[in-house]
Structure formats: C-alpha cells, structure tokens
Design goal:
The protein is of the alpha+beta class. Among the domains are: 119 residues, no CATH class; 222 residues, Vanillyl-alcohol Oxidase, Chain A, domain 3 (3-Layer(aba) Sandwich). The chain is built from 27 helices and 23 strands. The strands form 7 sheets. A 6-stranded antiparallel β-sheet has the order 19-16-18-17-21-22, sandwiched between helices. Strands 9-10-14-12-13 form a 5-stranded antiparallel β-sheet. Strand 9 and strand 10 form a beta hairpin. Helix 2 packs antiparallel against helix 3, helix 2 runs parallel beside helix 5 and helix 3 runs antiparallel to helix 5. The longest helix is centred in the N-terminal third of the chain and has 29 residues.
Length: 709
C-alpha cells in the first residue's frame, strides 16, 4: 500500500468556507454541489463536514492491510457511525446559515445526499495488499489522477515561502490558460505569475517538496501562449513567465558584435525595435515574431525564414539563467574542459547534472550521432548531438566545448525554467535582392530549390497556389497591414501578376529566393536567374519593383491567416504543420501529401521554408463534430510516415508538445528515446517540470482536443 501523510486540518472548528476560488476546487471534488449566489448571499458549507473528510481520509490511508478483517470491519462501522452523526449536525448548521431564498437551491435533503455520498466514498472497503510498496512517481503520473487537495494547499505554501507574485484559480483565468494556438485544450488548476526570478525559485522549491505528498503536482512554464504543439498546456500549475518577467536589461555593442540580455517575457517585436538602433536583428526570428516572446522562442528552439543560413534560436544563445529542480538559479553557458572540472567540484544540482550528462554522452557517443536527424532543421527530442562541438575526447583535450544551453533551448520547460537570457544579434543585410519563381509543375519544385541553394541564399520561402487565390479573393484583409497608397500599389501588383504575367493560371508553388553580398551583384544575379530557369523554374524573375516585392512577402506572411477564409466554420489545424524533408525529395513528398489530403477529404493552404524542405500546412477541421479525434490520429500516422519515408522528420521548429511526443518513435529507436528519458531524469528527477512533453507522453490526443473552432 501507499502511505501518504495528510496535512493537519487547515480550518478551525466552526469556520466557514466561502464560495470563492477555493470553492471551485471543492466543487471538482464533489464536496460542494453549488458555487452560485443564492438570495444575495453565498452558499456556505460548514467545515465540520470538511474536517470529517480530512480525518476520514487520513484514517483510510493509514489503515494497515495486515490488520485482522474483524478489526477492519469494526473500524468501518465506527467511521460510518461517526460520519452520520457529524453529518446530521453539519446539515442542520448549513440550513441555519443559509438564507431563506437560497434554501430552495440547497435544501437539507440535497445536503444529506452530499454528505452521504462523501461518507460512502471515505469508508469504501480498502483492497488487501501485502505490505508497503514504494511506487515510482512516473508510474503515478501514468495513472493521471488529479489531486485537488494538493493544489488547494499550494497557495498557502507559496505565501509562507515568500512568493510575491499572483496566485489564482479564478475560473475565467483558468479558461484563458486552457488553450494556446494549438488544437488542444487542457484546464490547469492554478496560475502563477511570478514577479521576479526569486519567485520562480520559490515556486520550484515548494513544488519539489509538495510532489512527495501529491505526485500529480507539476509546474509548466508559459510565455506568450502562441505555441502550436500544446507545449504550455497542463492540468496542474501554469507558471506565466511573460506577465512580469519582461524587462530588457542591456544591449552591448562590443568587439564581437551586438549582444542583448533580457527576461523571457520580452516580446520579440519589442526586442527587434531596440536592436534597430544598432542596425542589428536576431536572424532566427520566427514568422510569428509580432506576437511571440523571446523566452518562448528559446523554449521551443524556434526558427524562421532566415534559419536556412543562420539556424535556430539555440545557435544564437550566449548564456541562460535557469532555475533547476533544486530551486536555485544557475548560469548555463559554453565551457571548456578546465571550466567543467572546476564546476563539477561543487556540491550542487548543476555540478551533478554536468557530470551525469557528460557520462551519458561519453557512454553513448555513437548512438547519439546515429540519432541525429539528417534534416537541417529539427526540434524533436533533446539535442544531445549538439552538446559538444566535437567528440568527448576532443573536449577532454581542450579542443571542444560543452554547451548545455543546447539542451535547455528546445526543452519546452521540461528540464528547468529560464529567468534571464543573453543572445547574439546579426547585422542587418541591406544589399538584398529577390528572385520570384512560380512553379507550375510540381515535379520541378525539388530541382528548382536544389539549384537555388547553390547561390547561398539568406532564405528560400514558399507559398502555394491556394494562398495566392485566397489573397486575391480577400483584398480587404491587407488594408490593415498596408498604409495609404501602398495598399493600392500592392493590390495592383498582385492582379497584374495574375492576369498578365501568369495569364490567369495560378502556380502550384511560388518560391522566393533572397540573395545578398556578391550573389546579389548584377552579373551574379543574372547567372542565378538563368540557372534556376534551366533547372525547371522557367518563369523565374528578378523582382525590381518595391510594390511587387512587398506583395510577395505580404502573401507569404499571411498564408496561415488567409487559410481561415476558406471556411470560417472550421479551424486550420496545427498538427501536421512541422514536417521537413531533404529539398531533393520535395517533389515526391508533396505528390504524396496531395494524395493524402484528397484521401482524407480536407484542404490545406501551404507555406514554409523551401530551402530547408520545411512546410507548414493546416488542414481545415471542424472541432465541434464527433470523430475529429480519430481523424487527427489517423492523419498523423499517415503523414508522419510519409515524411520519414522520404528521409525527413515530423518536427522542424514547433517542437514536440502534446501533438508530436507520442509519435517520436517514428523518428527514433527505443534506445535513442531512452537517452532522452535519461536526460530529462538527470535534470528533473522528480518530474516536476512540464511532464508529458518530450518524453513519457501522458496526454491522450483525442481527450485533449479543443471542442470549439
């Protein structure tokens, strides 16, 4: 059996529990039947019944299974007798303390039924066991049983420990945090909004201690809530690092370029505006940079258009301040072997983690390199293959560095919580030129992309014919995005392109290739256009008109939003949107994708990063209908198998979350997945950080789907 020490009664004799935030928790327990106002006064429940609940639960959990059945029976009878006696007194007092107008809604008879059901639950006959068994917390999490009492006590424990931020279980706020931009909806129990890094430390220490008694408690970081995989959703506690932790600390223009330090809640658009003063930008910016935060982007290891040349967010991280499972903050940054030896002499969580991670890599070096995805972009699993920029032997010889920021970036808050970050910035390129390539024959797409890559582009972006058609059919959409005459110039460029240049035939795809430096010089640019034409892009063109150039980028950036105009009663569903394949396999991959879309009778606008072979498409689904869950699972199986078949992966930049964690076995072997589980356990032995993501999936996709569009 499991022995759990219950807390001392938290209410004094004769106290009254008002129907406020706590009532919601008791309602979910089935202890309070109503939280509505009645006759102008709040329905209250006398705490004698609550004390009965606590005491009886304590008695139940401490029953020794070796006790004689006779003694167990006597205990049961005794408890039932006491329960009934106290219940009668409670019912009378409830009736007395309730206003006449409310008695119609909360009658004595209803109260009797409530207490009777409570008594029946408490005195239920325990199953016979043989002695005490220690159950691993991961096994308890698999049972996925909520523990409202644990969540109810968290606020009290946090305040006692000095937490200064907001703690709320307000139903409206819980509903707000139940969704992000994904297709999932999971209702948390509590929302924390820390005001400082110290608050985050306090929250981690309290949760670390309380999970010993209440294993279902956990802490899930959330920033702007724009993720597409459900990574920030939880049925336990959300810690919002964007509400107050949103300060820009400093920007340094040094000998090695521009760096900046900020808190995780800083919005990408605000940081970009500050960097403009230094003629710099963060080249790993995601397409959603207008609505997402810096911290959330690192948590997902986001990437975007310029990632073809410049990589993911992890490639631009200089250092991170992270609260680890012991509730202390550590600065994580690249280190030499000499620095590693000095740090591992300490007696703290970070020193232990360093030693265990290096030992894990050294023991499994060949397996780790084998597990490394072949595509250029990837956020699946934990990037063990990037922790050392060489071999372990090179590291020990001082020829390579160890960098655990490579594990934290992309971990979705499963191994620690970022409270401060420092990143490098890149000078803005001003000498760029654009080549637009309409691809009318899908079979030519792969060859065109491969040829374009030979000219070292900053990016190769793509949108499909459906996106362009939707842009032409919804010109008013661009009115809020373009000022004055620019709006009309862009529309003129769009319709002229379609009617004159394309002769009213929309291409399968349009590729946008951005060149700079020597490749953007007149002669080199001419050669590039000629080579792309010869590879299958017969109508490739150097775009010289500023309005036409803006038109192409407007359609590319708006592709996802435009897809919503197809059918406003449905939702563009993000669960297949992150697959990548090698560019040379692009044509074959998309030929099969089109067949699958037809098979499942769905439409999807497509856009993405063609140079990486990385495409986003969002099938239109109606989440109010039954059967959509089965469809999501069947489509996931079929489409993910297709991506892997063509040498790709299922997760390029939006990370695993609820959507893809259950399918990582399509990319990685059992041994490789066990390495990820080992990493998570090294950092978070009690599994308090965002459980169920990256490893050990525990959210059923069908059960957690949103029910609205």
């Amino acid at each position: 059996m499991i022995l759990i020490q219950t807390p001392a009664p938290c209410f004094a004799h004769g106290a009254v529990l008002r129907v406020d935030t706590a009532t919601t928790v008791w309602s979910r327990c089935g202890i309070i039947e109503s939280n509505k106002k009645a006759g102008g006064s709040l329905v209250v429940l006398h705490c004698l019944a609550l004390q009965l609940f606590f005491c009886a639960m304590a008695t139940k959990l401490k029953i020794n299974d070796a006790t004689k059945s006779k003694k167990a029976t006597a205990t049961k009878v005794s408890k039932k007798r006491v329960a009934k006696k106290v219940a009668k007194r409670s019912v009378k007092k409830v009736a007395k303390t309730t206003s006449p107008g409310s008695r119609a809604k909360h009658t004595t008879g209803q109260a009797k039924k409530t207490v009777k059901r409570l008594v029946k639950r408490v005195v239920k006959k325990p199953k016979a066991t043989s002695g005490v068994t220690v159950v691993d917390r991961s096994e308890l999490l698999k049972q996925h049983k909520p523990q409202p009492l644990g969540h109810l006590l968290v606020e009290q424990k946090l305040r006692e420990a000095g937490f200064r931020g907001e703690v709320s279980s307000d139903p409206a706020l819980l509903n707000e945090y139940s969704t992000d931009e994904s297709i999932f909806a999971v209702r948390p129990q509590i929302i924390l909004q820390p005001k400082s890094g110290k608050d985050v430390e306090t929250a981690v220490r309290v949760l670390s201690a309380e999970t010993k008694r209440f294993p279902s408690l956990s802490l899930t970081p959330r920033a702007a809530g724009t993720g597409l995989s459900g990574g920030s959703l939880t049925d336990s506690i959300v810690i919002d690092v964007a509400k107050h932790l949103a300060s820009i600390h400093e920007i340094v223009d040094g000998a090695n370029g521009v760096t900046f330090t900020c808190e995780p809640g800083v919005m990408w658009r605000d940081m970009e505006r500050e960097l403009k003063r230094y003629d710099a930008y963060i080249p790993s910016y995601p397409a959603s940079k207008d609505i997402c935060s810096i911290g959330g982007s690192i948590g997902n290891n986001a990437a975007g258009p310029d990632s073809l040349r410049y990589g993911h967010c992890a490639d631009w991280v200089a250092s991170l301040e992270v609260v680890l499972s012991d509730g202390h903050t550590y600065t994580i940054q690249p280190m030499s072997y000499k620095e590693y030896k000095a740090l591992t002499k300490r007696d703290d969580a970070y020193a232990r983690i360093l030693k265990e991670v290096v030992a894990l890599i050294e023991k499994n070096e060949a397996l780790i390199q084998k597990a490394k995805p072949k595509t250029k972009k990837n956020t699946a699993g934990y990037a063990l293959w990037h922790c050392i920029n060489g071999t372990v032997a090179d590291f020990k010889k001082g020829k390579a560095e160890l960098d655990l920021t490579r594990l934290v970036a992309g971990s979705q808050g499963t191994i620690g919580i970022i409270t401060k970050l420092t990143m490098r910035a890149q000078p803005v390129a001003h000498d760029t030129e654009l080549i637009a390539i309409p691809v009318f024959n899908l079979a030519d797409a792969g060859n065109v992309v491969v040829e374009a890559l030979k000219h070292d582009p900053i990016n190769v972006e793509v949108f499909d014919g459906l996106s362009f058609d939707l842009a032409m059919k919804n010109p008013e959409f661009f009115k809020d995005r373009l000022d004055g005459m620019q709006y009309y110039k862009v529309l003129l460029a769009m319709y002229t392109l379609y009617h004159v240049r394309w002769r009213r035939h929309t291409p399968e795809f349009t590729l946008l290739v951005t060149l700079d430096g020597k490749h953007a010089e007149k002669a080199a640019l001419k050669d590039a256009v000629a080579a792309i034409k010869a590879a299958g892009g017969a109508r490739a063109r150097h775009i010289t008109s500023p309005s036409e150039r803006e038109m192409f980028w407007q359609v590319r950036r708006a592709s996802y939003t435009l897809s919503k105009f197809q059918d406003e009663t449905k939702r563009p569903a993000a669960f297949l949107e992150d697959m990548t394949v090698p560019p040379e396999n692009l044509s074959k991959f998309f030929a099969e994708v089109k067949k699958l879309l037809k098979k499942f009778n769905v439409t999807a606008a497509v856009h993405g990063h063609g140079g990486n072979g990385h495409f986003h498409f969002y099938p239109l689904l109606d989440f109010t209908k039954q059967g959509v869950g089965d469809m999501v699972e069947k489509m996931s199986e079929a489409f993910f198998d297709t991506a892997v078949k063509y040498g790709g992966n299922i997760c390029g930049e939006h990370n695993d979350g609820i959507a893809r964690t259950p399918y990582l076995n399509k990319m990685f072997s059992k041994k490789e997945l066990s390495l990820f589980a080992a990493v998570e356990h090294i950092f978070d032995p009690d599994d308090i950080f965002n459980p169920g993501k990256k490893v050990n999936p525990r959210f059923d996709i069908k059960d957690t789907l949103r029910r609205t569009n």
